[in-house]
UniProtKB/TrEMBL annotation:
Membrane topology: Multi-pass membrane protein
Record has Nucleotidyltransferase as a keyword: no
Gene3D superfamilies xrefs: MFS general substrate transporter like domains (1.20.1250.20)
Subcellular location: Membrane
Transmembrane annotation, as ranges: 49-71, 78-95, 101-125, 137-159, 165-187, 207-232, 244-265, 277-297, 309-334, 346-367, 373-396
Protein name in UniProt: Sugar transport 9
Alphabetized GO MF terms: monosaccharide transmembrane transporter activity; symporter activity
Species: Chlorella sorokiniana (Freshwater green alga)
Length: 486
């Protein structure tokens, strides 16, 4: 995942801009030469440059649904291997790029790798992890991502004075790609389930949550800010070295916040982190908007004093910390654990598709939004985070410590989702849920392993027989609550 963190620093490289985006390079030089002539918000406003970044997300979006099918049909392991191979191809094309077309083709290949890896890895972790520590183990995926971004930013900083250093920075994406490919060969095979039922009324909560959680996650603005932070600080008057150093500091905050989430997700719960993180993010974004608005105004052409640049950096770090222990990791964890057996692969494929579709839209439009809305873009993101926080309060159930096999009763008991799925659908689904638990308990009593899923054959067990019996008892208790006959 380090490839996503390399891009922003590479785009700030004069050598790279001269080779592939000469008009942006000339705009950057003119802004500095004229002592801030023109709007600082529009220095990097170029749709082709935005396409270089967002083409990865467009490709990942296009890969998400085929990756969902391959993950279901051939298993998570196969999907991871394909992701690693696409990464290798993309890294090679980017490192050896001779023209813009070759450069973007490399980004597209990397995007396919991102799509396959992001479809399979969180799902694999959710299925293989004991439910007591599922949150922490799944967040290791996000920790690896943020660490990769930080390493990429440090690489950009280390290569900042080396001619052609951008080629090495982009080519180093092949290293984690090789590790993913080789590591995938050693993994066990996880369970396989069918793609259907996601659009039935009984599973509408999974469809809505799998679509809206990644949508809100992208429109917090974090990814746009992190990927374009070198351009942002360059536009605000920071020097080349300071620009890349600021990106490294923000990357370090991203890693630190993810470690906090790793520790707290299975203690404080998912909802608590999302709500607290949302409030902190809104406060930080409003403060950034107020600071830049007071210093730069609407269209002032000036370079900010160093103290203001550092204050902006500190506020962005507060925002990044909140995001990285809330929406960052949990927007991958929650969609992977809210699915039933019937919707797991399809539901998470939907989440991955929406995630990268929104990432593409944001990546393609952020520089234009920054130019048009100026400091107001931060207030815009603050408004969206406020809506996201309200959505969490009313719509997201707590999944801390809940085995995957016990997820559906959460919707049946939820005051909103119970109305959405209807009593009849909830009763039928819970009855099937009870039967599966009892089938598993019966198999355990006979000394076997696994249980029979309708239309899917025998499924492997990921919990012990004692847990199965306990699940059966819990399901029976919930039955009368939903007026389930029998």
């Amino acid at each position: 995942m380090a490839v996503q963190g390399v891009t922003g620093g590479v785009e700030a490289s004069s050598d790279f801009l001269k080779s592939f985006f000469p008009s942006v390079y000339e705009s950057k030089v003119a802004f500095k030469r004229e002592g801030g002539g023109g709007s600082p918000y529009c220095t990097f406003d170029n749709q082709t440059l935005a396409l270089f970044t967002s083409s990865l997300f467009l490709a990942a979006m296009c890969a998400a649904l085929p990756a969902g099918y391959i993950t279901r049909r051939f298993g998570r392991k196969t999907s991871m291997l394909l992701g690693g191979l696409w990464y290798l191809l993309g890294g090679g094309l980017n490192a050896g790029a001779q023209n813009l077309a070759m450069l973007i083709c490399g980004r597209v290949a990397l995007g396919f790798g991102v799509g396959f890896a992001n479809q399979s890895v969180p799902l694999f972790l959710s299925e293989m992890a004991p439910f007591q520590v599922r949150g922490a183990l799944n967040i290791l995926f996000q920790l690896a991502t943020t660490t990769g971004v930080l390493v990429a930013q440090l690489i950009n900083y280390g290569l900042r004075h080396q001619e052609g250093g951008w080629r090495l920075a982009l080519g180093l994406a092949c290293v984690p790609a090789l590790l993913l490919t080789l590591g995938g060969l050693l993994l066990p095979v996880s369970q396989v389930e069918a793609w259907r039922a996601l659009f039935r009324r009984a599973h509408r909560p999974q469809l809505v949550l799998s679509s809206l959680i990644p949508t809100f996650q992208q429109w917090t603005g974090l990814n746009a800010i992190v990927f374009f932070v070198p351009q942002l600080f360059a536009a605000l008057g920071a020097g080349a070295d300071a620009t890349l150093l600021n990106a490294c500091i923000i990357g370090g905050c991203n890693v630190a916040g993810t470690v906090v989430s790793l520790v707290l997700a299975d203690r404080a719960g998912r909802r608590g982190l999302l709500l607290q993180g949302g409030v902190q993010m809104v406060a930080a974004l409003v403060a950034v908007a107020a600071l830049l608005g007071s210093q730069l105004g609407g269209s002032a052409a000036t370079v900010l004093p160093p103290a203001t640049v550092w204050a902006t950096l500190a506020l962005i770090c507060v925002f990044v910390l909140a995001y990285s222990w809330s929406w960052g990791p949990l927007s991958w964890l929650i969609p992977s654990e809210i699915q039933t057996l019937e919707t797991r692969s399809a539901g998470f494929a939907t989440a991955v598709f929406v995630h990268f579709f929104m990432a593409f839209l944001l990546g393609q439009t952020f520089l234009g939004m920054l130019c048009a809305m100026q400091w107001g873009v931060f207030a815009f993101f603050a408004g969206l985070v406020t809506i996201a926080t309200i959505f969490v309060w009313f719509c997201v159930p707590e999944t801390k410590g809940v085995p995957l096999e016990e997820v559906y009763p959460l919707y049946a008991r939820h005051p909103l989702w119970r109305r959405v799925i209807g009593d009849e659908a909830a009763a039928a689904a819970l009855k099937a849920h009870i039967q599966r638990a009892e089938d598993h308990a019966a198999v355990g009593a006979e000394g076997g392993s696994g249980w029979e899923a309708p239309g899917l054959g025998r499924q492997p067990s990921y919990w012990g027989d004692g847990q199965a019996l306990q699940l059966s008892k819990k399901a029976r208790v919930l039955g009368p609550f939903l007026s389930v006959p029998g």
